[in-house]
Structures are given as structure tokens and as C-alpha cells.
Specification:
Chain lengths: 299, 455
């Protein structure tokens, strides 16, 4: 039966002006800091603009340039691969850690805190740490490998295809956001539900597979959304390690965007920004659909 | 009722504060002061008979190498003009200086004096909107014009005859430094050919760099280009401008030569090294040669021993230019200082002019030349300067070795679009020295990237 909206009463109507008045600051902030920048980005993406003087309309030229740029194909390919890795290995690792921590093994609080530490260190600092870690001569990784293979030499960040994997390793295992979001949902599951499942004869794995995982569907969807959109906007861990190289092997749209800004090509940079924005919206729509984000997990 | 009134006042205040804080109209005209605190205070101080304060955002302070001369110079100025003028420095990171100035320009808050700023920034922001004060007449009156380099005066002069800033008076040539404990050739490097230089190194290392803009490597490659037939003319042709085509014989030959020298001078150890790594390598007695500008002189002074290791001694370092008697410098460019038209009062403009006249006085210029190791071709040096030069062997060597036979060319990075010079060059150089791409591919890739940056 369709719900019928009751007409607002006199008392409710009296408070409308106050509601609108109190909403006004938020609406203004939203318009100025969200709507206006996005609108500026969209309309200047159709212009030639140096970021300071008046833009001149050039139609779709910037978008044509984005897709014909020598680094675009590899940037999109890298984005696809990094998104797949983020969806599977990165998010999977985060979910796995959440499930391990949920069972409260000995020292779980300590592990959770340790797992959290990388998140409070800036991406720039991590990038520099990794530059030392992957250094061929003094790096920890190669030094360890050379204990087994004495002649091993590899410049991880400066050789293909190692550079792609070296950049990937700078973020792959830092999945604390995924872990915390999923853990939060897991902890919200009523104990009575687990007990009922046990009474019905559910084993540990069955409990995880048929009760816990479905109930965390929304949290996993949110985590995937965060993980993939982070790959779209990923910049520091590329710029501060490989700079998009060797050649264009670790290029991304964000690095391409910053390079365009360096050359005062703000129109072109904003066209890249619009494409990144659209990718983000598409991913959001797909994940919403696949994970049925608006629906209750219990339905 | 009181509660309602209070609530509505709070809401209105919140909304108003949002609008006020973000509602600064951008300044697109000339001499529009829209609330800059420094100009107001300058006007106020003038009226009150206090010293006029100039707040100067600059990167020539703090840890920046430019601070070695500039901070004491500001102190000297403030002492000399105590009670009349005062310059206060506001530290800005060099890498974000252009962005900061762009933001100030957009909000109509450019300071009356600007130091530095790239040629591109000048051409994009300062000049099209005529945000500068025409220094032409004042330069003539003050006598500073007599010191300015002709090429820079021509470059700084606009179509309407106005002059942007104070054109260059000094030449900061870039050459190389040798650690004599590891490499002490029989004759000057500048007097050698490239092959003689490489042979004389006898396997000693050069402190290369591939990360970021591959600065030290880029300098040497420029010297190699200048040593190729046609290379010097090509580089000089684009001095002060941008080149978007590197598919030429001299660049390809230089790239091939670079790989050869890279392999003979321990290059593989320098893959992934940044400028700090290269400098550290040289100052720890690991490499025998490093390419850099004269500002590195300060690193070899007795005050910099904290940066030395492994028995390195700055006194063992000598300065030279590149094989083939090549020195690197951009002579067609804007100067170091710019006076904007964003001054609130004549007193503020007078303060800026007084500061500039102080900085460009012969005594200060000599001090600047001694500290930064640069040459001031049109300045007649005093006896005092010559006496002090004996105490500065590196500056003396750089000064004496720079003769009328020295060929001065701009760096290859300076004639490339910024994105290519800052990141693409280093990325492609890594592939070149690793043998992934040929010298021809190296040049054609740079050309493609430069063309993309141009469009």
C-alpha cells in the first residue's frame, strides 16, 4: 500500500523558515566549495585557459587531446589494473584482517593499533621510505634477496615492469580503512543471530559465509568504493617514487593532470579532472547496484 | 523571543562570515588595493611618521642557499634605513612561489616587491595584466640601467616600451666542481675536449642524477650538445624561449655520447638518485666531479663541514667549466626583482625603490658576487673586492676561467616546457641509460611530450 504524505500542519509550517535559515550556511558552503569548483572545472574543460587570464572556448579539443595523448592509454590501463588489484587483493586483505580481528585472537587490539599506524603517516613519507626500501644498493628488499641470489640487482622503481609492482606495493597492504569499516559492521551483528545459527548447526565457515559476509555487504561495498576512487586520485605515491616513469610506465591521470598544470594548461587539466570525476560516478553507480547499497542486508 | 532573536542573529552571522571570507573579488585592474594589510600599514606608518614596512614574500631565506647573501643584506638595509624603512621577510617555499604569487595576484594582494618567479609565470600572470610598475625611467635615474645586461634589458622591454622589473645584472654561470684528491688533471677541464676529459677521469665517478629534473646530468648533457656541431647555435637561438623539437643531429649525438660517458663513470650506481644524493655523493669523497651552478660554492666553505663525510674537505675542491670551454647560463631572461603596481602610497613605492637601489649598489653587488660566486660584467670592481676574491678561491677560479673565449649557452631544461624539464626528461633519461631506448628514441619522445605540452 502506497504511503500517503500527510499535509504539513500549521505548527510545522511555522518552523519552515527556521529550518531553511539554519540550513542556509551549509547550503552556501556546499555551493561555494563543491558546486562552484565542479562547475568551474566542467566549463573550463571546454576552454583554453592558463589559470589566470580569461579562458577561450575551444569545444571538445581538450577531451580529444586527453584521449590522443601519448600517456593516456597507459594511464587508463594502469588505472584499470590498479582498480582490479584494489578490488581484489587490497580490499580482500582488509576484509580478511577484519574477520580475523572480529574473532578477538590474543593481542587483537595491539594488532589493530599496529595495522592503523601506516594510516597516520603521510603518503609522501611512505613514498620516501619505499624509495630507500627498494633501492638496489642499500635497500632492504634487494639486500634480503641477495642473501639467496648474490648477483641479484634490480632498480624496482626505475625498471619495467618492476616499477608498476613497486608502486603497487606502496599502497597494497595499507587497507586499514577497509578493515575498520567492515569490523564496525561485524561488531554490530547481534550475538543472538550467531547463537541461532549455531543452534541450526552452522559451522564456523558457514557462519562467516552465510551470515557475516552478507551482513557486511554494505561495508564491503563502501570499502570497495573508497579503494577504487583512491586509485583514480592516486598521486603522491607515484609522483614521489617514479614520477610516472620509467618512460610512462607508471603514469596515471592525476600525474598527467599535474603536468598540465605545470605548463599552465588548466583547460586540459580540467578535462582530465572531469574524466576522473565521471569515472568516480560510474564506479559509485556500479558498486551501488552490485552491492545493493540502499537496501538492508537483512532484507 | 530572545532565543529566537539570538538564533537568527547567529545564523545570519554564520552566513555572512561565509560570504565575507570567500567573497574577495579578484583584481584584474591596475593598482587596486583590496585590503592588503601591508600596504595599509605602510600608509598608516607614513602618516604616523613611523618606518614604512615592506613585507617581502621570498624564498631567499631560511634554508635556501640564496639566504646566505640575502638575509644579511636585508639586515644591513634595515640598519641603514632604521626609522625610515623596514623590510620584513616572509618565507615561501621555492617550489610553491609561483602559485603563491598567482593567488596573491588574483586577490589583488601582490606585494610591491617580488623576488624571482619563472619566465612563464611572468608571461602568464604579471605582464598580460600589467601588474608591474614600469621601471624604465627610474632605472635610468638611479644608474642601475648601466649595470643591466643588454640581452636582459631587451627581453624585459615590452612592446609599449615599458620595462618589467630590474633586468639581470649578474651572470651565474654553471660549470663543474672537481675533488682534487680524486681528480687533478694537468690542465683546466674547460681547455680539454670531451674525449680528453673522459680519458683524464680514468674511471673516477661523476655525481649523476636521474630523479626529478635530473639536474646534474642535464647540465652535462647540455655541455655535450654545445660541443656538437650546430648545438651551440641551436641552444642560443632558444635562450629565453621554448623549443618543442629535439629531433636533431646534435641532440641525438649528445645523448649517445652521454650514455657512453655514463657507463665509463660509474653511472649505474646513480639510477634513482636525486639532487641531494648526488651532492652527498660528491661531498663524501665518492665521486670526483659534480656539475652545478656557482651557488654550490657555499657548500665547500668552512661553515658547511657538517655536510661533509668520509674525509671530504671543501678546500680540495676546484671550480671549472665544461670541456670545449662551455659555461651554462640564461642571459635572455627577466631579472631577479620586480616592482608591482600594487602600492598603496608613494611612500611604499619609495621604500621599494630605496631597497632596490641598496641591493644594486656597487658594495652590495660585490658582496652578492662574492657570496653567490656570480659575475657582474658591467660592474667595475673595487680593490677591496679584488682583495677579498683572493680569499675565495672558487669564485676567483670561476671568474678567471670565464673569458671572452668561453661559449655561454642556456641549459637544455630552460628551453623545454616545464613539465618536460621537470619530470619527463628524468624519466626518459633513465630509459636511455638503461639501454631501453636509443638516443634517437630519447629525442623523439621528448619532442612528442613537448608538443603535447605546447598544445
Amino acid at each position: 500500500m502506497a504511503r500517503v504524505r500527510q499535509p504539513y500542519g500549521k505548527v510545522e509550517k511555522r518552523y519552515f523558515k527556521w529550518i531553511y535559515l539554519f540550513l542556509l550556511p551549509s547550503v552556501i558552503v556546499f555551493i561555494m566549495f563543491y558546486v562552484k569548483p565542479i562547475w568551474t572545472m566542467v566549463w573550463t574543460s571546454f576552454t583554453k585557459w592558463d589559470g589566470f587570464n580569461d579562458p577561450s572556448f575551444i569545444g571538445m579539443k581538450n577531451y580529444v587531446r586527453v584521449f590522443t595523448n601519448s600517456a593516456s592509454a597507459i594511464s587508463l590501463k594502469n588505472l584499470l589494473y590498479w582498480s582490479i588489484i584494489a578490488m581484489t587483493l587490497h580490499a580482500g586483505f582488509g576484509v580478511l584482517v577484519a574477520f580475523v580481528l572480529y574473532h578477538h585472537p590474543k593481542g587483537w587490539k595491539f594488532c589493530r593499533a599496529v595495522f592503523m599506524i601506516p594510516n597516520v603517516i603521510s603518503a609522501a613519507a611512505w613514498a620516501l621510505i619505499y624509495r630507500f626500501l627498494f633501492d638496489d644498493h642499500v635497500g632492504l628488499l634487494n639486500s634480503a634477496i641477495r642473501r639467496i641470489f648474490p648477483d641479484f640487482h634490480l632498480q624496482w622503481f626505475y625498471t619495467s615492469p618492476a616499477a608498476f609492482w613497486a608502486v603497487t606495493l606502496t599502497w597494497l597492504f595499507y587497507a586499514v580503512i577497509v578493515t575498520l569499516v567492515v569490523l564496525q559492521d561485524l561488531m554490530a551483528i547481534p550475538v543472538s543471530m550467531d547463537e541461532a545459527a549455531h543452534l541450526d548447526g552452522a559451522t564456523g565457515w558457514q557462519l562467516t559465509r552465510y551470515i557475516h559476509l552478507p551482513l557486511c555487504r554494505g561495508a564491503i561495498g563502501t570499502s570497495l568504493l573508497c579503494s577504487i576512487t583512491s586509485r583514480i586520485s592516486m598521486y603522491e605515491c607515484i609522483a614521489l617514487t617514479t614520477g610516472g616513469g620509467p618512460g610512462d610506465d607508471t603514469m596515471s591521470l592525476s600525474v598527467l593532470l599535474v603536468r598540465a598544470i605545470t605548463d599552465y594548461n588548466y583547460g586540459f587539466a580540467n578535462a582530465i579532472g572531469v574524466i576522473m570525476f565521471i569515472f568516480g560516478l560510474i564506479i559509485m553507480a556500479v558498486i551501488n547496484k552490485v552491492f545493493k547499497m540502499g537496501e538492508s542486508a537483512l532484507s | 523571543m530572545k532565543k529566537r532573536l539570538l538564533a537568527s542573529l547567529l545564523a545570519a552571522a554564520a552566513a555572512a562570515s561565509c560570504m565575507v571570507s570567500c567573497g574577495n573579488k579578484s583584481n584584474t585592474g591596475n593598482n587596486q588595493n583590496t585590503g592588503s594589510s601591508a600596504p595599509s600599514s605602510a600608509a598608516g606608518n607614513e602618516a604616523a611618521g613611523k618606518a614604512v614596512v615592506l613585507t617581502l614574500p621570498t624564498y631567499y631565506c631560511g634554508e635556501n642557499v640564496g639566504a646566505i647573501y640575502f638575509e644579511p643584506a636585508v639586515k644591513r638595509f634595515n640598519e641603514q634605513y632604521a626609522g625610515r624603512y623596514e623590510v620584513r621577510l616572509e618565507e615561501v617555499v621555492e617550489a610553491s612561489y609561483n602559485d603563491k604569487m598567482s593567488t596573491l595576484a588574483q586577490s589583488g594582494k601582490l606585494p610591491v616587491l617580488i623576488s624571482g618567479g619563472s619566465n612563464e609565470w611572468m608571461k602568464t600572470v604579471l605582464i598580460p595584466r600589467k601588474l608591474y610598475w614600469d621601471t624604465g625611467a627610474w632605472l635610468q635615474e638611479s644608474g642601475i640601467m648601466d649595470l643591466c645586461l643588454d640581452a636582459s634589458v631587451e627581453y624585459s622591454t615590452q612592446e609599449d616600451g615599458s620595462i618589467v622589473g630590474i633586468p639581470m645584472v649578474s651572470v651565474s654561470t654553471m660549470g663543474l666542481y672537481c675533488n682534487t684528491t680524486k681528480y687533478s688533471p694537468d690542465k683546466n677541464v674547460a681547455d680539454m675536449t670531451v674525449d680528453e676529459f673522459v680519458a683524464s677521469l680514468d674511471g673516477e665517478k661523476i655525481a649523476w642524477q636521474t630523479v626529478d629534473n635530473a639536474w646534474t646530468s642535464m647540465l652535462f648533457m647540455t655541455a655535450l650538445i654545445a660541443n656538437e656541431e650546430g648545438g651551440t647555435g641551436w641552444l642560443q637561438e632558444y635562450d629565453g624561449g621554448k623549443c618543442y623539437d629535439y629531433d636533431n643531429a646534435w641532440m641525438q649525438a649528445a645523448a649517445a655520447k652521454f650514455v657512453e660517458i655514463w657507463n665509463k663513470t660509474g653511472g649505474s650506481a646513480y639510477i634513482g638518485k636525486a639532487y641531494a644524493d648526488a651532492a652527498n655523493d660528491f661531498m663524501s669523497n665518492n665521486s670526483a666531479v659534480i656539475c652545478n651552478g656557482t651557488w654550490m660554492n657555499a657548500e665547500f666553505g668552512a661553515d658547511s663541514t657538517a655536510n661533509w663525510s668520509n674525509g671530504f674537505n671543501g678546500a680540495d675542491v676546484t671550480a671549472d667549466y665544461y670541456p670545449g670551454n662551455i659555461a651554462l647560463c640564461n642571459t635572455r631572461g627577466y631579472g631577479r626583482w620586480f616592482i608591482t603596481n600594487n602600492f598603496s602610497s608613494d611612500a611604499e613605492l619609495e621604500a621599494a625603490k630605496a631597497f632596490m637601489e641598496f641591493i644594486y649598489s656597487p658594495e652590495e653587488l660585490e658582496q652578492f658576487a662574492l657570496t653567490e660566486g656570480c659575475q657582474i660584467p658591467k660592474l667595475t670592481y673595487s680593490e677591496n673586492y679584488r682583495a677579498k676574491l683572493d680569499e675565495q678561491p672558487l669564485v676567483k677560479a670561476q671568474s678567471e676561467k670565464l673569458t671572452d673565449k668561453t661559449t655561454i649557452v642556456p641549459t637544455i631544461a630552460s628551453i623545454m616546457p616545464d613539465s618536460v624539464a621537470n619530470s619527463v626528461f628524468g624519466n626518459e633519461l633513465t630509459r636511455l641509460v638503461n639501454g631501453v631506448i636509443s638516443p634517437e628514441q630519447f629525442c623523439s619522445t621528448l619532442t612528442v611530450k613537448a608538443q603535447e605540452a605546447k598544445d
